[in-house]
Amino acid sequence: MAIATINPATGATEREFEPHGPAEIERRIALAHKAFTELKATTFAQRAAWLRRAADLLDAEAEGTARLLVVEMGKPIAQAEAEIRKSAKGLRYYADHAEAFLADEPLADPAAVGASRAWTRYEPLGPVLAVMPWNFPVWQALRFAAPALAAGNTGLLKHASNVPQTALYLDGLFERAGFPVGAFQALLIGSGAVAAVIEDPRVRAVTLTGSEAAGRSVAAAAGAAIKKTVLELGGSDPFIVLPSADLDAAVATAVTARTINNGQSCIAGKRFIVHAEVYEEFSRRFAERIAALTVGDPLDPATEVGPLATRAGRDELAELVQDAVAKGAKVLAGGAVPDREGWFYEPTVLADLSEDARLVQEEAFGPVAALYRAEDAADAARIANQTTFGLSSSVWTNDAEEQDWFVRSLDAGAVFVNGMTVSFPELPFGGVKASGYGRELAAAGIREFTNLKTVWKG
């Protein structure tokens, strides 16, 4: 894929960039390594001050940066501005909490191990490579950068090739905030150049948010180099509705959960598993609300669903729908590529999917919802767990026993009860099964890329 800004609403190429060659890649890795020697010697207080300054810059520049996100990947303008604000909040969160998260932890009874004192400490690893996707191009990158920099690591960002201007904006953000030169840099490289960066001995770890295929490739390269990885991969999250649920709230939230970011979110509700007692009413109201969404120019504040980020992504989504319909699925809303320029797809609801439809197992990365009828709670959990993914989940029930049962029964990195899955700086984020391993955010996220060092004193 070319490194270029191609406006998804028009299909027009707005800017192209030359990939960094071997000499520039070497220069940037060397700079990241040098910056690490400086950064690890600074205090938590100093790094916190720089993070807060970066957050202030994000807030001050939110309007222009949000428009950049719209042009590069088609996010509706209001959602783009919200992403910038959320990213600033994430920077401030680690400025406030990093020191406590990484404080030394003394052993309560050192005599038990024959010591006068014993404790553990967290130390930064060095330069960390972050391979990031385009769908939340600022938030995804900064939810790595904030804890990494707060811990004293440096970052190398290999961003998606269709958001190069966002990558370059982030490239300069932390230096402008006061961090040492080279503390956080973008690498304008294609996927084929990633393995060589991972192999470089100065790069100490890798984090990736992206597809399952990309995760397997990066994990293989990192495994060969014996380097730590955190992988946040795909998801086909279940959104389960039981008879005791507040149906008004469930329907309204389901629409948002499926179409936020034009349906291009790993943690979006994708499979709507509804108890037979409320299936007909839910499916009717859900399809009506999906069909009524305003699709259009993502720069128009009235737009609710914009284009998909890439033509390939739009075509892949259309193929999944065509496959499902060919195998007997019923279209309750949408189901077609609209006759307009850009990479749009109609918000779509499908029902009665056959077990051999690709959509049953594969992730629909766009505004396409799959409806499933469940006979009871056990059947709903069976359907929810039948995919290879296990990122997050949403369960709607006002029955306390059902709530507890689903929390225990769902194979997922998170369960949201009577609410839509959202990532928060305060909560660990990540999945199981083919959705990856490791955690981002909260205390768990900052500790992923540190050396937990044991100290024993006689």
Automatic annotation (TrEMBL):
Pfam families: Aldedh. SUPFAM superfamilies: ALDH-like. Keywords: NADP, Oxidoreductase. Residues 3-455 form the Aldehyde dehydrogenase domain. GO terms for molecular function: aldehyde dehydrogenase [NAD(P)+] activity; succinate-semialdehyde dehydrogenase (NAD+) activity. Belongs to the aldehyde dehydrogenase family. This is NADP-dependent succinic semialdehyde dehydrogenase. The lineage of its organism: Bacteria, Bacillati, Actinomycetota, Actinomycetes, Glycomycetales.
